[in-house]
């Protein structure tokens, strides 16, 4: 008989009513785990930075103010305590501020009867460090999942690096979403045998080839397939996503090539100006932020996805596009070569230039893989193996038998 296991998922990377796309990959992993192992239950504590004003003129900061104190998402109860973000000293103080904001919430949950058996933390810094403090205070096992910049960027700073090492030493289970991040933890001094790689999966039902691709392209105002190549670049409009490289590739590609950019963020103005300067503004369409369950329309309509990021752990957009039958052209960084590991998946490029992106795209369009083969490749990356591995790891940490 499988004993019940009560998780407390702790992370600042989790969606809320005001930011429904924020950290959706963490929510997806948790949902699939609960579907896989019905003996596991979960509550989520997802702290949100404190901000006093909700008026839209304050942009992304206003979303912090609009996030509810508590909500239920997909049947999972979620708490959003506020924590202060202090300029200049914020990076150093953040783990302690998170800990102080979350501890009363966890104490209340236990007092109300939810006596969680372990803490499941996502993102090593500051979240994982705060979770280590919480696990020590409440005397429960801890799992920390590394996801990207928490290992491939933040450890460049001495004090966060020391705290990451400390938290890793406190954890009962360490997870990375790709082998490259595991290597990053090992480089920080964590024994390789303590780290388990459990990659993100892809929702093969939500992301699927379109039933009528020609109609989908018409609905999006795109030329028929074969008449003009259509590329897509999907993600937050921030520097490390390097959407500008997709724009800079256009002058090197046939003039009928079009680019769709889906996302919002502080780089939008600069990206539009770059397109104007290069004379390709008429070939670029900014779609804004799209709901996660509508991205399959973009993937299904385009001929290739471009992901030019400078840093990624395991980029979900790659498998989402492939699951829709669309191959990718992506920068060879961190976990991306683990995702794009066969010709039917797409092409990788090394140089961070528009010309390099264009060469990868041109090679892909000159000899495109069969879209059914690309979909079949993505089908190797469903959630079942990851959920099974999670359940096994978590149950081992608390000494409970795994589900049959």
The total count of helices amounts to 16
The outline comes out as globular
Helix content: 40-55%
Termini gap: 9 Å
Q: Give the strand order, joined by hyphens, for the main sheet.
A: 4-5-2-1-7-8-9-10
Rg, Å, rounded? 22 Å
Task: Tell me the strand percentage band.
Answer: 15-25%
Annotation, overall tally of beta strands? 16
Q: Please, could you describe this protein's structure?
A:
This protein has helices spanning 24-36, 60-66, 90-111, 124-138, 149-152, 158-170, 179-187, 213-219, 243-249, 268-277, 295-301, 316-323, 336-339, 354-366, 371-378, 384-398, and strands spanning 5-10, 40-45, 48-49, 70-73, 76-79, 82-83, 118-122, 142-146, 173-176, 195-197, 230-234, 258-262, 284-288, 304-307, 328-331, 346-349. With 404 residues, it is α/β, with parallel strands linked by helices. The protein is globular. The relative contact order is 0.12. The mean pLDDT is 94.
